[in-house]
Amino acid sequence: MNGYRCIACAETQSADFTGFVCPSCGGNLEITYDYAAIIEEIERSGIDRARSIFTFSAFLPVQRPAERFPLRIGRTPLYPARRLGGSLGLRNLYLKDDTANPSASSKDRASAIVVRRAMDIGADVVSVASTGNAASSLACVAASVGLPAIVFVPETAPPPKLTQSLSYGATVLAVRGNYDDAFDLCLTASQEFGWFNRSTGYNPFTREGKKVCAFEIWESLDGRAPDRVLVPTGDGNLLSGMWKGWLDLQAVGLIDRLPKIDCVQSESSAAICNTVNALRASGRVDIDWAKVSIDAVSANTIADSIAVDRPRDGLAAVRAIIESGGEAITVPDDEILDAIAEMSRLSGVFPEPAAAAPWAALKRMVTAETVAPDELVVCLVSGSGLKDVAGARRAVPEPHEVEPSLEAVRAALKR
Ligand SMILES: Cc1ncc(COP(=O)(O)O)c(C=O)c1O
Ligand SMILES: [Zn+2]
Fold first, then answer.
1. Atom 4 of ligand 1: nearest residue by CA position
2. Tens of pLDDT along 142-161?
3. Which of 10, 107, 222, 410 is buried most deeply by CB count within 10 Å?
4. 105, 165, 386: which to mutate for ligand 1, most atoms within 8 A of CB?
């Protein structure tokens, strides 16, 4: 790591900068690297293949990454999904199963790097605002190293996510308001009390954890890049992290072509897709990112993890979609619900609503012929179905209620 660059105005900061956002324009920062030094390190010692998120440590902005980290974060499976893909005529569909993370979502990737950073700088409390997953994830990772965590969630967050956070021993503030209210309150309180704020799209270190997902996909595909990766998107940090990972690999010569990064949002929480579509419709080519603004929406979707009015890493995501040539696809809630059951039935991977959205989007893309049958496609399964059992339950039929008799079983099988 050799500094920070503003995603909006491109102003740079040195590596010892301690702020979170651009001091000139308030834009989000991205962490920059000395790629020549990374190439040298890889040539000298090879790629370090730790069994956790702290693999490829030359690309990570933290010191002694794996030290004192008991949990295995990242290194999740990439499954070929032949029956699921085959149901749409897709011959090379893969699922990146991030439900296999300790707290059962992709968020653990970011929490690991942020908690490691907090330890590096001697922070004694970590905080976050979250729709639910980032809270349970930070609570989990902080508990694993004995760091106090304070989490802000909307009071409507699904009970499993709340229960996880409470079980891990975090201080849970259930905010009477939505995610955006929780975000603003966490920001003010963290500044007031000096907590290290992990909030997505504010803390530049989260993206660095999420990018490792791209490294893992690259490794699982024997050093290849897929044609496209579909990412469920709310704030846009998961998506911009995914893109950063492939850019890092390209910058050191490990890949010679980049995948398209497709953004999947709920129809009613589509601030990022709306902006991408408007920019594309305008036909502008040389976009001045400092002048791009993202209009807020009023989110209302069953996919609570991607219900966001004002995307906090929206600009980075819009840039990633446009620069990668990816699609911006929105899906309605009923298709998200269908996708939960279809993915589960045809692949054995059980997604929460947000994590099912990419499959719903892929179905639309096949119909629109924006994806070809032979493309190598990866859907990111970013959170487990157990995170929102009530959501999943809406997607499946009722069980057969039977008396404890063989006759009743026979009758049920005929129904
Ligand atoms: C399961 C799941 N999928 C996708 C996302 C979207 O990530 P982002 O808000 O960075 O776009 C989240 C964020 O909470 C999530 O929990
Ligand atoms: Zn700036």
1. 232
2. 999 999 999 999 999 989 99
3. 107
4. 105
What is the predicted pLDDT for the residue at 68?
79
**pLDDT at 360 exceeding the cut of 90:** yes
Query: Total domain count for the chain?
Result: 1
How far is 73 from 348, CA to CA, in rounded Å? Answer: 21
CATH number at residue 293: 3.40.50.1100
Residue 284: pLDDT above 90?
no
What pLDDT is stored for residue 66 in this prediction? 79
Residue 103 Cβ inside 6 Å of ligand 1? The answer reads: no
As beta bridge partners, residue 328 has 263
pLDDT in tens, 177-193: 999 899 999 999 999 99
CB of residue 330 inside a 6 A radius of ligand 1: no
Ligand 1 centre to CA of 16 (Å) is: 29
Compute CA 154 distance to the chain's CA centroid, rounded to the nearest angstrom. 19
The reply to whether ligand 1 has any atom less than 6 angstroms from the CB of 241 is no
Is any ligand 1 atom within 6 A of the Cβ of residue 355? yes
Q: 146 C-alpha vs ligand 1 centroid, how far in Å?
A: 25
Q: Do the domain assignments include residue 150?
A: no
Rounded CA separation 199/192 (Å): 15
Nearest CA to ligand 1 atom 10: 237
Ligand 1 atom 13 nearest Cα: 305
62 domain-assigned: no
| Cα of 233 from ligand 1 centre, angstroms | 6
**8 A C-beta contact, residue 387 and residue 132:** yes
- Which among 23, 205, 202 has a CA at the least distance from the CA of 130? 202
Among 305, 308, 384, which residue has the most ligand 1 atoms within 8 Å of its CB, making it the best to mutate?
A: 305
Ligand closest to Cα of 12 equals: 2
Predicted TM-score (pTM) of this structure: 0.97
pLDDT at 253 over 90: yes
For residue 268, give both structure tokens: 């009613």
Residues 201-210 have pLDDT tens digits of 999 999 999 9
Range of the domain at 213: 78-104+206-393
- As a whole number of angstroms, the distance between CA 322 and CA 79 comes to 28
Side chain identity, residue 88: L
Ligand 1 site, residue 269, Cβ cutoff 6 A: no
- Asked if residue 64 has pLDDT above 90, the reply is no
Is 224 a domain residue?
Answer: yes
Q: What is the mean pLDDT of residues 245-267?
A: 98
Is residue 229's pLDDT more than 90? Answer: yes
Q: Three-state DSSP class for 254?
A: coil
Q: Is residue 322 part of a domain?
A: yes
